[in-house]
Amino acid sequence: MSEYGFPLSRRHLIGALATAPLLPSIARGATPSISRLMVQGRPQDTQSPYKLANILPALDKLGGVRKMRCREPYSGTAGWATYVGLARAGVRFCFTLSVRDIRKSIADMKAFVATVPNSIFAIEFPNEPDLNPVTYNGVTDKRMGFRTGNAPALMAFIKDFHAAIKVDPVLRSIPLVASNDFMQAQQAPYTDLANSHIYPTPPSDVAGRVAGFKQKVVESKTTQGIITEWGRTTGGSASNNTSPPVTIAQQATLLASDVKTAMAQSYVHTISIYELFCWKGTSEITNFGLFNTDLTPRPAVAAIRSAVGA
Q1: For 248-272, what is each residue's pLDDT tens digit?
Q2: Global pTM?
Q3: Among 153, 140, 279, 290, which Cα is nearest to 230's?
């Protein structure tokens, strides 16, 4: 077992000399830290609030957060400049793969780190493949098949991406994050960090939910994982898909407590808040944000900042 919190092969060690360092592990008796906080962003959406001039001030108001989870960058698109601008300001990314041509994904990420070295801290396999079934090499997984261990297209993609990136001298030492929640054991040969999405209902046992994440870490045969989505919406209704809405004041109190509870556990490497900005509307999905649509901070911003001592 290495100092990074997961086993390193000889190939990993050689690759580490050529690219960014692997993730340092979190010591036992872990304490809240801004370095363990990540936010969901959408720099690829150029017609949204996720513009460079909006994102950086928001991250600073949140205490100087410099980790963002988002879709992998596509070269030649308008959003590329936003990704690069964020990276040049010190933001490091957890990129979620979108199941396009593997050669193109690797080429674009190599171009990205050539432009801004050390800007990718992790690469995550496809997001929610239970709800968004993967199509790969002419095979399409069944909806919800991932939840029952039946996702052959996803696993073929993961295996092929792993094989391709581990022979690349630029990217091969970047840690790989499992697709969230299910089939952690099956993904274990190809991943370095477990993954879960947690959307607690207001009366839920948060400590119990975090403890449940430890089982996913065990299944993944690693020592740590990333909670890539943790959210508290203020929109929608009692029939929300994630959890019933809370008030804006409750969102602040709950998220601050959530972050402290998660970061108290050394097996939680990073927790990512879903998401940075609200969108227009009153629905569940548009009201997870830490900032309102007019970019003013919600009370959760100060509460989280205090919780991590920033």
Answers
A1: 999 999 999 999 999 999 999 999 9
A2: 0.92
A3: 290
Cis peptide preceding 229, ω within 30 of 0? no
Distance, in Å, from the CA atom of 14 to the CA atom of 17, rounded to the nearest integer, reads 6
Residue burial 246-262, b: 16+ Cβ < 10 Å; e: rest: beeeebbebbbebbbbb
CA atoms within 13 A on the CB side of 257: 14
- Torsion-angle region of 144 (φ positive above 0: left; ψ -120 to 50: alpha; else: beta): left
- Among 133, 127, 129, which Cα is nearest to 71's? 127
Three-state DSSP at 230 gives strand
Domains assigned to the chain: 10-307 (3.20.20.80)
Instruction: Report d(CA 267, CA 274) in Å as an integer.
Output: 20
Q: Give CA separation, 58 vs 50, 55, 122, 169, 276, in Å.
A: 10, 5, 22, 35, 8
Q: Strand 176-177 and strand 139-140: pairing?
A: unpaired
Q: How far apart are the first and last CA of the chain?
A: 31
pLDDT, tens only, 31-47: 789 999 999 999 999 88
Characterize 183-206 residue by residue with b for buried, 16 or more Cβ atoms within 10 angstroms of its Cβ, and e for exposed.
Answer: bbebbeebbbbbbbbbbbeeeeeb
DSSP element (H, E) containing 64: none
Strands 225-230 and 176-177: unpaired
Q: Output the CA–CA distances (angstroms, integers) from residue 297 to 52, 61, 244, 245, 294, in the order listed.
A: 17, 8, 22, 18, 9
